[in-house]
Amino acid sequence: MPHTVNAVIVTEKDAPAEVTQIIVPDPGPGEVIVDVLTCGVCQTDQHFQQGEVGDNFPYLLGHEATGRVSEIGDGVTNVKVGDKVILNWRAVCGECRACKKGDLKYCFDTHNAEQKMTLTDGTELEAALGIGAFTEKTLVAAGQCTVIDDVDDASNAAVGLLGCGVMAGIGAAINTGEVKRGESVAVIGCGGVGTAAIAGAKLAGATTIIAVDLDPRKLEKAQELGATHTVNSKETDAVEAIQELTGGFGADVVIDAVGIPATYKQAFYARDLAGRVVLVGVPDPTLKIELPLQDFFSRGGSLKSSWYGDCLPSRDFPMLVDLYQQGKLDLDAFVTERVKLDQVQEAFETMNRGDVLRSVVELSA
Fold first, then answer.
1. What is the residue range of 250's domain?
2. CATH assignment of the domain containing 10
3. In a domain? residue 278
4. Same domain, 284 and 182
């Protein structure tokens, strides 16, 4: 029987996020209903609100979530009722050309639920990143559920952030940047994703980890999570500072967690001659960058983009939860505040002021 639940939607471009009732249908074949426990407030949700992702309003927001499976549709075998899960927005198909080559992280046909959740008047909702988790219950494809150990309720908020931002940052360092023991890493932009990249560089064994940002508060948090050096780029030339801290050569890996031309140029020139640049900050689609072609030609290494940290949720989420439970990855440090469903718009404003790494909406336990 369909469920009527409270959820956060945005009805048109730049409209405030508001709580309303929605209808969650019974799960069809390959679909599951998840009772949402927590959901992080990510800037991507605000991009949906601002019409920067598309114009398929109304949107059901939210995607960095933990939950518990409450119903399953026909043919679902990877999860069962009662499983605690982290939701992911890359449910690989196993059939596209990338999957058949073994590059599942580049799957070109990831799965979402076939059915739509709706407003009470029948208007179909577009779920943010195919999840829509600012709600008491959500409908997703079974493959969007990654089963994890049943961590205590106090930890739900922390592990749920692996569903997007924290995974993007850690993966940018470990999976995309392939940081090795003893290497030097610089991260430009120390919001949630950049700070996670610093934590990832520490996990990978980097010995010089340089955090770059304009905000002293963010640099302080970056140090808490593994940065060995900080650079306030408002006061110091970031490229020169990174080179000075790496023997004059530049870092082995430079991660741009901002995604604007100015920071990408800093990343490009702050790497060693054979270093790697990783772009994980999501750029505005209207932005362009211009660099001398000779500067590309005269350097080795690689220039990479990192989408979702090049992760495989089924592999990476349980591994990182294990590291968290062992005390080797401080996911709790990313949870700045815990809020209610009707405080999402306020959380966007707090995020824009740079006051948090993550606000997390807590729902039922």
1. 169-307
2. 3.90.180.10
3. yes
4. yes
Strands 145-147 and 137-141: unpaired
Residue 343 near residue 116 (C-beta atoms within 8 A): no
**Tokens 């908020």 -> residue:** 157
- Domain end call among 307, 326, 351: 307
Number of domains in the chain: 2
Q: Tokens at residue 292, please? A: 């001398």
Tokens of 296: 């590309």
> Are residues 173 and 206 located together in one domain of the fold?
yes
- Strand, helix or coil at 298? coil
Contact (CB, 8 A) for 351 and 46 = yes
Each residue's pLDDT tens digit, 58-81? 999 999 999 999 999 999 999 999
Pairing of strands 18-24, 3-10: antiparallel
Confidence grade of residue 105 (pLDDT, cut at 50, 70, 90): confident
**Are 91 and 141 within 8 A, CB to CB?**
yes
pTM higher than 0.85 for the full model? Answer: yes
- Give me the residues paired with residue 361 across strands: 39, 339
